[in-house]
Amino acid sequence: MKRITIFLMTLMLLLGLGMSGHAALMDMGDGTIYDTDIQLSWLKDANYAMTSGYDADGRMSWAAANTWANSLNDFGGFAGLTGWRLPTVVDTGSSGCNFAYSGTDCGYNVDTSTSEMAHLYYDELGNLGYYNTSGVAQAGWGLTNTGPFTNLQPYLYWSGTEYAPHTNTAWTLYFSHGAQDWDDKTGHVYALAVHPGERSTSVPEPGTLLLLGSGLAGIAVFRKRLGRREG
């Protein structure tokens, strides 16, 4: 019995570690990842425009990327959700890029409360920018962790926010090294759609269910073996 107790305690610890790694990012099992911190759903496939056959490689102009995101609202919406769009950026401080190595709207380690993509890159996935907050290149930078996403590209992704000082450009985020900046709308870069709004999280994540099932099966085998020895 003591061995079973120790086994159960170990299992609970493993479950806790498994769920705490990215507790805010939940795989909903319908092709979406839900961020419980900011009540935002992401497409799990971060290059769905390509894998769905919509675009040859998933790299589109800003106008085409917006059209693609809006197309996800057709026929009842992807995963039964309507309101899909490109991620937003809030232009803080003076209009346009206020470049810095920390806490602004442009550069590295930006204010993640004003950028949905930066929140994902830095806060949820825990990736590092090429520069630290002191402007010094740091080890371990880049897209080292993609979390529960598939096909997340180490390259530019469009936001849906136009760059005010130059309306022929729009805000972007480099998932290759964590820099937020702006680029010409005619450029061809990747797009990742989001859906705002709170969702029910009462259904456990598939990964959690699998881990729990494996643990319970292990308990059953352990108890069976222990019973044989005691008999």
Characterise this structure:
This protein is 29% helix and 16% strand. A four-stranded antiparallel beta sheet has the order 1-2-3-9, with no helix packed on it. Strands 6-7-8 form a three-stranded antiparallel beta sheet, with helices on one face. It has a two-stranded parallel sheet with strand order 4-5. It has two domains: 2-20 and 203-230; 29-196, no CATH class. α1 packs antiparallel against α5 (206-230). It has five helices and nine strands. The protein is globular, with a radius of gyration of 21 Å. With 231 residues, it is α+β, with helices and mostly antiparallel strands.
Give me the secondary-structure topology.
Layout: H1 2-20, E1 25-27, E2 32-35, E3 40-43, H2 48-51, H3 62-71, E4 99-100, E5 106-107, H4 116-124, E6 156-162, E7 169-174, E8 180-184, E9 194-196, H5 206-230
Parallel strand pairs: 4-5
Antiparallel strand pairs: 1-2, 2-3, 3-9, 6-7, 7-8
Helix pairs in contact: 1-5
Question: Which features does this protein show?
Answer:
231 residues; alpha+beta; 2 domains; 4-stranded antiparallel sheet; 3-stranded antiparallel sheet; 5 helices
In terms of per-residue confidence, which ranges show pLDDT below 50 for 5 or more consecutive residues?
Answer: 5-22, 205-212, 215-222
Could you state the order of secondary-structure elements as H and E? HEEEHHEEHEEEEH
Largest sheet: 4 strands, antiparallel
Distance between the termini: 14 Å
Rg, nearest Å = 21 Å
Give me the number of helical elements: 5
Percentage of residues assigned to helices: 25-40%
Counting DSSP E segments of at least 2 residues, the number of strands comes to 9
Number of domains: 2
Query: How much beta, percentage-wise?
Result: 15-25%
- Report the principal-axis shape: globular
Q: Quote the average pLDDT.
A: 86
The SS-based structural class is: alpha+beta
Enumerate the strands of the largest sheet in spatial order, edge to edge or round the barrel: 1-2-3-9
